[in-house]
## 1
Amino acid sequence: MKFPSSIFNSPSLIAALSQVSTNGRGSLLGTLSAPYMPEFLEDGPLPNGFPWGMATTNCPDSLGIATTNCPQDVPNTGIIRPYNFVIERGTLAPDGVGKNGLLINGQFPGPTIEANWGDTFQITVTNNITGPEEGTTLHWHGLHQEKTPWFDGIPSGNIASL
């Protein structure tokens, strides 16, 4: 079978661009060296073998059916997870063609945030966007915005830009 203009006709399957060129400095996502994500982080207390102790996400809904949506029953591990994000313009080539974009800590996608159920995030964001300067916000995927929908991350729409 003949494959016109494909990797199957290539004498090598070695990537032509470095990981730094495609994803920025510090990002290993999409590589065989990407970090393993453990079931939970073990750098804090582990009551009953887990950071959240005996707490469970299985709680009955109004019909008595088990559900895993119990934001009111989140444990408090007492652990604060600090992160510093610097947002700036940069050029990357994730598809092999250089594109200008916004990077977080010099990489795209931005850094992985890790925590255990019940940990608290402390995230400091520095806006270093220049040429031209502009405001920015972050949109947090995977976090309950219960009673705080105005912090959803739409710039100049529902919260002030940084």
## 2
Amino acid sequence: MPRPPRTRIAALVLASLLAGCESKVTDENFAKVTDGMSYAQVEGLLGSGEDQTATGTGIGGAGLLTAETRSKRKVFVWKEGNKIITVVFDDGKVVEKMREGF
């Protein structure tokens, strides 16, 4: 069986790489993110996000410094160039979203 020319193989590899680089941080995908969506649903639109949840400490009932663990609020960020989408989840569901650089 004859081998395909190297240029054809190179073109196929390049096309598959470019398809994987499709921008997901777009106005269209930002608009698709709605309150109540799960992280998995948002990840399906935007890809894997970076967890930017602030962690902190508090003062316990005994007056001792303790880790703050009560909040179920998480903040995830998606970046591409100067475009940034920030999504806030409370108990695993979208409650707020913001965008910058569009």
